[in-house]
Every structure is written in C-alpha cells, then in structure tokens.
Amino acid sequence: MLPRLTKIRGMALDLLFPRWCVGCGREGDFICPDCLHSLPRIMPPLCPRCGLPQSSANLCPGCLGWQADIDGIRAPFRFDGVMRQAIHELKYRNLRALAGLLAWLLNGYLLENPIPGEVLVPVPLHPKRLRERGYNQSYLLAKELGKLARLPVVDDCLVRERHSLPQARTSNVGERRGNVADAFACRHRQLEGKQILLIDDVSTSGATLDACARALKRAGAASVWGLTLAREI
User: Fold this and answer.
1) Per-block average pLDDT, block size 10, for the chain (233 residues)?
2) Any residues with CB less than 8 A from the CB of 106 and at least 6 apart, and which?
3) Contact 103/145 with Cβ under 8 angstroms?
4) I want to staple 79 with a disulfide (CB 3.0 to 4.6 A). Which of 9, 44, 86, 230 is the partner?
5) Is the CB of residue 204 less than 8 Å from the CB of residue 167?
6) How far is CA 109 from CA 104, 106, 112, 126, in A?
7) Closest CA to 64 of 54, 50, 74
8) What is the pLDDT of residue 8?
9) Which residues make Cβ contacts (< 8 Å) with residue 126, sequence separation at least 6?
10) Which CATH architecture has domain 39-231?
C-alpha cells in the first residue's frame, strides 16, 4: 500500500509542479532523454590517479610530482554543457530534487566502473557557507546514491574547519591546493579501517578531495577514492 501511495503522491506533485529539462526546457524530467544522450562523457584511457582522459593509462604529467593522499578520482562526465547546467541548478538555484536523477547517473557509472568503497562520505561545507546556501549539495548526492548503491552515508565525521575561498576563484593548481590545505579534520575515528568513497559535485584539480583524503587517512581510513559527477578538463 505504501509504495502505491508514494507513487500517487509523486504523480500529484508532478501535476502541480511539472519538471522541465535543465538543458532544453522540455517538460517531462530534469534531463530529457535527448539531453541525457548528449551528456559529455569521460572516456578511457584515464590517468589512474586524477581521472583525466589522456592517450595512455599512465600517470598524467600533473600527477607525476603530486604526493597525493587520495587513491584516485573518477567522474563520469565532463563539466560542460547540460551537465554543467544541471550542477549549477542543484548547487546554486536550490533545485534539490535534481539530486535523485544525478545520483542515479553516478550509480550507473559505479555499476560499470567499480571503485573501492564501503562507506559514502560527502565533502563537507564550512558552517558559514552551509548557512548561506541552506544545504550541502554533496550530501544530497551521497544520500541518494547511498539508497541506490545500498551503502551507508557518514556525514558527521569529516568536517571543514577553515573557511576558504571557493576553489573556482583560485587561478592555478598551486593556489587551489594551498587554499584547502589542512581545511578538513575528522571528529572521531568512526571510519578507521574503512574504504571511503568521497562524494562531490565537481573536481577541478582534485585539491579539495585530496585534502579530505588526508584528514580521513589521519583518522585511520584504509583507502579514500573520490567520485564526482563531473571533471573539469
């Protein structure tokens, strides 16, 4: 009975608040079938660490001298086109209902490209930014992905202690890494010995994910991989 009531409720909400494609404006869903097909996918071969597409499966030039704590970063899409618009709608325009569809895309990627992970951990916002935005888009993605992948979500361990500029306002990799250096910490050792899958919306240089991985490994995490919807190329 409950599933039927949930379905009826969903149909009623769709009638009152119809969904429109963030890409082309067509009514039906947040990303219509045509725009789903056009999403800019990242195809192998990839750098095994940062996940950038390249001509071989060796470390890319940017990762050769990078003493990273993150074990690897993966993303199904380029941060471009409809995917860029969808992330902006989720992140800046309060379209929280979009998280379910985007998590479904992440889950599909995980099924085809398994990544070590037994616990999902969203990249946290600083409390000041959380108050300004009202929600953490990475937590929304992790919560929906956890339901689909049947993985627990832990969002009360990793915290952002230092408020810093948005990474988009930095101009190069060095600035991005310095901007988030030691910005994160773990409140307890709940994740000790666990394989962690860090969830975020976009990876630009990997600096934020690596800073999170450093804090998690200091607290005893066995491994830390990053999974984002999109990668800036």
Assistant:
1) 44 58 95 96 96 94 92 98 97 95 98 97 94 96 98 97 64 67 90 98 94 96 98 93
2) 76, 141, 145, 199, 227, 229
3) yes
4) 230
5) yes
6) 9, 5, 5, 29
7) 50
8) 43
9) 160, 161, 162, 163, 164
10) 3-Layer(aba) Sandwich (3.40)
